[in-house]
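Re: beginner question about structure tokens

> Can someone show what the tokenized structure looks like for a real chain? I only ever see the sequence side.

Sure, here's an example I had lying around. Input first:
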Amino acid sequence: MPKNKTILITGAGSGLGEGAAIGLARQGHKVIAGVQIDPQVTTLRDKVKELGLENNLHVIRLDVLDPFDVNSALRWDIDILVNNAGIGETGPVSETPIELVKKNFETNVFAPLVLSQKFIAKFVKEKKKAKVIWLSSMGGLFTPTHFGVYCSTKHALEALAESMKEELAPFGIQVQTINPGAFFTGFNERMLETSFRWLNETNFTKTADLQASIDAQVNVPDWKLNPQDMIDEMVRVIPAETGKFRNVFPPFVEDMLKDLHAKAWLNTI
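And the corresponding structure tokens:
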């Protein structure tokens, strides 16, 4: 791959995706920032102009659920695809409406898999050395209570990425995951509110109990992490031609997950 890469990032209209797009463009890479809706296109293009990054950062509408947007994105000749777009559902798995579960999988798993398959077919046909990156999560490697729906989509990404890594190695196509900890960019905070739009007095899970459970898990100083630290790590990992397959950040989260995995063999019912 060339030193300065051409990188397509989905879900770049806010948060870590937007920050990584800007950071990579500042490093001299050509970035195509895919955003979900038209107002995000205008907002980010204005920001790009203010930053003087017009030559390096191109903003397009790329709703991963829209086949026309997907086919339009395929016109770009890229070196790296970053599957960052996603949504999150919280709440008791036992009661979450199945249509919301399906929607979470459609956005987080099926749509990015379709996009990846289409770009991979191009890479193979063109005999191109390329890379596919999946934005997973610390939640792809463990499952906190009441985060089961969202985490299950990220667990699925881990399986897809791990299999894809071996399948594509003979073609010179690299595959990685990036697994952020609890960085509060707006995404996590809004995800915590999702279950309260359907949970009511007819559910056996009570609103107060669910709120107490979520508060106990997230209202901890160690989880109020600075998003810029994660953005800097993404900017380091995404264009790199060597590195780890799975990239958990910050390091204390990786240590925590290793400890949880070791203890998982001792779990009882």
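Each token stands for a local structural state, so reading them left to right follows the chain. The chain has nine helices and seven strands.
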